[in-house]
Design goal:
With 331 residues, this protein is α/β, with parallel strands linked by helices. It has a single domain (7-320), classed as P-loop containing nucleotide triphosphate hydrolases (Rossmann fold, 3-Layer(aba) Sandwich). 47% of the residues lie in helices and 9% in strands. The chain is built from 15 helices and five strands. It has helices spanning 20-28, 42-47, 63-68, 99-104, 109-137, 151-160, 174-182, 191-196, 199-231, 242-247, 249-260, 268-271, 298-301, 304-313, 317-320, and strands spanning 7-13, 33-35, 143-149, 163-171, 237-241. The protein is globular and about 55 Å long.
Amino acid sequence: MPSNNKIPLIYILGSSRSGSTILELLLNAHPEIWATGEAEYLPWELKEPRKPCGCGSQIVDCPFWQQALPKVPIGKGSYPIEYFKNPNRAGKTLKIDLLPGLLLGKIGSRQQRAIKEYGVLNAEYFSTVKRTAEAQARVKLQWLVDSSKDLYRLHWLNRSGCFDIKVIYIVRDPRAFVYSKIARTGMDGPKGLAASGDRSACNDAKWRGVIRQITAWMFQNAIMSRMINSNFDSANIYRLQYEALAQEPNKILNEISQWLGVEFPENASLSFRHVENHAISGNPSRWKADSIRLNEVWREKMPHSIAQTIWGITWPLRCKLGYRKNKQFSK
């Protein structure tokens, strides 16, 4: 537990579809750790409800959020808590105006004022959640968890001076990442092209999609790695592979326990689904009742030529992130 007055925050950083939701639920299994989900999505979920609260109720109907919402600063300021999820910012890894500050620490006075406002509003948000959770659970919380994953959000929260942050950086095999991102249209290309019978166009579209997602995986993880190495002490970074989490959740929780200085309940990896959860947004796995299992369907459904291309192009970054072996994960 941090000894200063800053808000203690565990921030989950990573690309989408990398296991952040399951990781967050496991952390939430500790009675003194409270998961907020993808915290920056709260205002958008209130404006256009897409997903329920972690408890299954709509956010506005959830007893926890009914207590907290009146004191959460939604819609306040020029740099509100949802700033990086507005139409001009959402989903963009390359933000030219912010990259120098993120990678090189070159932050002008105007951006510093923006960071300060953003940090203060988020501190008010998290403080409200913390007080509400402590009153409801009747326990002193040691950590809050934000699984927003956005590296710009992490950078601004860190530079604001309002938080004591520990980062869990989670990555996934690049082949699994690419497959999960394009599986909706099938490995044979968009349905419209496939239906047209134009196999050449279908094949071109397939490979364009693959290369686009390979580039996304490499670019996102390269920037994330550089950012946390430049802005955080190594003692405040825990690097994790999705495959290790899925195959050995107890081992990972033990390591995180030592890293955080807390002790998780026995069999937390089996009982985490039964712990109270009021997290925002996230992967559909949040609302399932199944146990943790390794999802590697890509090994069966991805054509060998595509898998080999991904494996080759992503070297050496994948090696730096621990993906050296072709068959299984390595730490």
